[in-house]
Amino acid sequence: MLETLLITWRETLEAALVVGILLTYLARSGQRRALRYVWLGSAAAAVAALACAAASSSALAMLDGETQELVQALIVFGAVGVLSWMVVWMHLNARSLRGDIQVRAERVLATGRLVGLAVIAFVAVFREGIETVLFMWGVVVQRGVQLTTMPLLAGGLAGAGLAIATAWVFFRGFAFLSLRTFFRTTGVLLLLVAAGLLTSGVNKLIGLGYLPPLVPQVWNTSWLVRDGSPLGAVLSALVGYRSRPSLLEVLAYALYFPPMLWALNHGQPPPPADGRGEGGARSAA
Amino acid sequence: MRYQFAWALFLALALPVRADDLTIALSVKTEGFEPARIAAPAGARIRLEVSNETVTPIEFESFELNRERVVQPGQRATIYLSGLSAGRYEFFDDFNQVRRGVLTVE
Of A15, A146, A149, A180, which is least packed with CB atoms within 10 Å of its CB? Predict the structure, then answer.
């Protein structure tokens, strides 16, 4: 039971943290209309993950494992594009958002861009959701639906619930930051998430033999943070932590993150002199 | 011209199948991996062919090898590993962690 709890906690946490960042980010920038799209993307992904697992003996089998993995890698790269664009775009536009930040943001955030938010939420939830569902499905198939299976299922559900609670507590902590610090922090966090997604995509392509790792293991920090540990799971979701990355993954990270951080900082708006922007967004959050 | 060269270099490095690949077959059965112990020479390019012979999905995972891959029942996945230095590399089924194995590189 503890094992199923830990596995679903770990898988769900990764998705919950990403969705949590998006929700907190949007809520505090006063873009409440956009929240719907994040929830929509998450819900669609949960349904899709369930559907894929239910159909895994027939529909998924039509695509062989390698193609599925390749499709996943391409989806991840798409998400990195959307995420990067969103962070930088929002910050560049924040410059023009003086006065009533909420109304202006509503006006400039066109529906096409909101769909991008739904896509990111979908990718985050689907990526972890499919694994969680397949794992739980395996538990049931292996043991059959009987009395001894129930604690395992309960453990799985409890793990998912705990993960959402963990993410909630994590983001509650952000509520105490000033708006400026908040945007700086979450902007950087989102870029770290994107960098982590990018390297996970690169890792998939290496495993499929499409890319060379260059050096299979550049360093080993497993003595400090183990990959499977709770801290390792949190860091994996937030910054793409791997204890033993290959050189190509490190390069991808290094080529992506610093330039994006630079772009983010250059789009940073000056602090509002009268504090009106801050008040407006806070009341909306 | 420069791009063509870069592209050719990229393809040469990236082409999935090469003549000197070392193929290792690894079955996943209900009891565990078979064989649970596999070996390879240091520096080799390895094609690890993981066949899931159970009735449920498995996830081949290894922190040491920095690889993870879900394999559906009855399917086979090819996982590429290359340039490994000598050492012990443990792997397991993340969906059922009693299934464990080790790759020894020497």
Answer: A146
| Per-residue model confidence as pLDDT tens digits over A246-284 | 999 999 999 999 999 988 777 555 444 444 444 333 333
Q: Which residues contact A271 (CB under 8 A, 6 or more apart)?
A: A180
Q: Which of B9, B47, B63 to mutate to test the interface with A (most CBs of A within 10 A)?
A: B63
Distance, in Å, from the CA atom of A253 to the CA atom of B8, rounded to the nearest integer, reads 24
In degrees and rounded to multiples of 5, residue A55 shows phi and psi of -95, 10
Distance CA A192, CA A269 (A): 21
Tell me which chain B residues have a C-beta less than 8 angstroms from the C-beta of A222: 63
Question: CATH number of B19-105: 2.30.30.240, 1.50.10.100, 2.60.40.730, 2.60.40.420?
Answer: 2.60.40.420
Find out whether B90 and B102 touch, Cβ atoms under 8 Å: yes
Q: At B73, list the tokens.
A: 């029942």
CA A256 from chain centre, in angstroms, equals: 17
Q: At what angle do helices A2-28 and A230-239 cross, to 10 degrees?
A: 30
Question: Cβ of A59: how many Cβ atoms within 10 Å?
Answer: 11
Write out residues 3-32 of A within 8 Å (CB-CB) of B.
3, 7
Per-residue pLDDT tens over the stretch A129-156: 877 877 777 676 666 656 667 888 888 8
ipTM beyond 0.90?
Answer: no
- The closest of A126, A120, A158, A170 to A20, measured between CA atoms, is A170
Q: What is the pLDDT of residue A280?
A: 39
**A259 interfaces chain B, CB cutoff of 8 Å:** no
